[in-house]
Amino acid sequence: MFTGIIEAAGIIESLEQVGGDLRAVISSAEMDFNDVKTGDSICVSGVCLTALNIDDNSFSVDVSNETVSLTSFAQLQEGDKVNLEKAMQPQSRFGGHIVSGHVDGLAELVGRSQDGRSERLVFSTSPELNKYIAAKGSVCLEGISLTVNEVDDLQFGVNIIPHTAEKTTLGLLQVGSKVNLEVDIISRYLERLLVEMKDGMEDEIADGITLDKLISSGFIDKA
Questions:
Q1: 145, containing H or E segment
Q2: CA 160, 186, 145 angle in degrees (round to 5)?
Q3: Do residues 61 and 36 share a domain?
Q4: Within this chain, do residues 190 and 179 fall inside the same structural domain, yes or no?
Q5: Which helix (H) or strand (E) element contains residue 67?
Q6: Sign (positive/negative) of CA torsion 195, 199, 204, 209?
Q7: Structurally, how many domains does the chain consist of?
């Protein structure tokens, strides 16, 4: 489990095909690996991966074909920068939102403009993913927890402060760049709950929650 608060930048040192999958070696002069052991999870630009062959400033990961097909690993090259976050510990501050590192798909940067000292980024994504994105809700892009400013059809906007632009890969994006997208896990559980309700299982939902109650409480729109 992660928070979406990036700890350090990393560099892709090497990429090679091993047994049909992808092996990547990632280095970082900014991250302390003393508390990381083989088998621990590290979030690499939003993708939860298992750390292997750890030394003082680098580690390797095996990336399955499934992960490559769904994420920006298909575009990465040696020398590219990635965002790194170690798995959350029980005593850690929860600074972002719940991030699993299980990427849902890709979003494409379609607009970038200054907004005071910050920058406003506009992304587009598929209808299958866009339905989970809500204004003032949370979204994870390249492993970074961000607040959604607005949603317009199949596009949504976020703001990034100068610190985020400087310390993460978001500062390097150009219009047309594709990024890893993970939707808020709460929206997925809510969808599952509503599907069960619509299938006539209202009486089995704990504590008497019904579709009418969710509507009357403002959790969902009547439409």
A1: strand 144-152
A2: 20
A3: yes
A4: no
A5: helix 65-70
A6: positive
A7: 3
| Residue 71 domain flag | yes
Beta-carbon contacts of residue 45 (< 8 Å; ≥ 6 apart): 71, 72, 82, 83, 142, 143, 169, 179, 180
**CATH number, domain with residue 25:** 2.40.30.20
Residues 156 and 172 reside in one and the same domain: yes
pLDDT of amino acid 207: 59
pLDDT given at position 152? 92
Domain shared by 37 and 55, yes or no: yes
Rg (the chain; Cα; Å)? 19
On whether residue 34 sits in a domain, the answer given is yes
Dihedral of the alpha carbons of 170, 53, 100, 14, in degrees to the nearest 10: 30
Residue 200 lies in domain: 186-216
- To the question of pTM greater than 0.90 for the whole model, the response is no
Residue 108 CB coordination number (10 Å): 17
Q: Can you tell me the distance from the alpha carbon of 83 to that of 4, in angstroms, rounded to the nearest whole number?
A: 10
> Which run of H or E residues covers position 211?
helix 211-216
Mean pLDDT (10-residue bins), the chain, 223 residues = 93 91 95 93 96 94 92 94 91 79 96 93 96 93 95 95 93 96 88 73 56 68 64
**Claim to verify: residue 144 and residue 212 sit in the same structural domain:** no
Which residues is 112 bridged to in the sheet? Answer: 121
CB 182 within 8 A of CB 104: yes
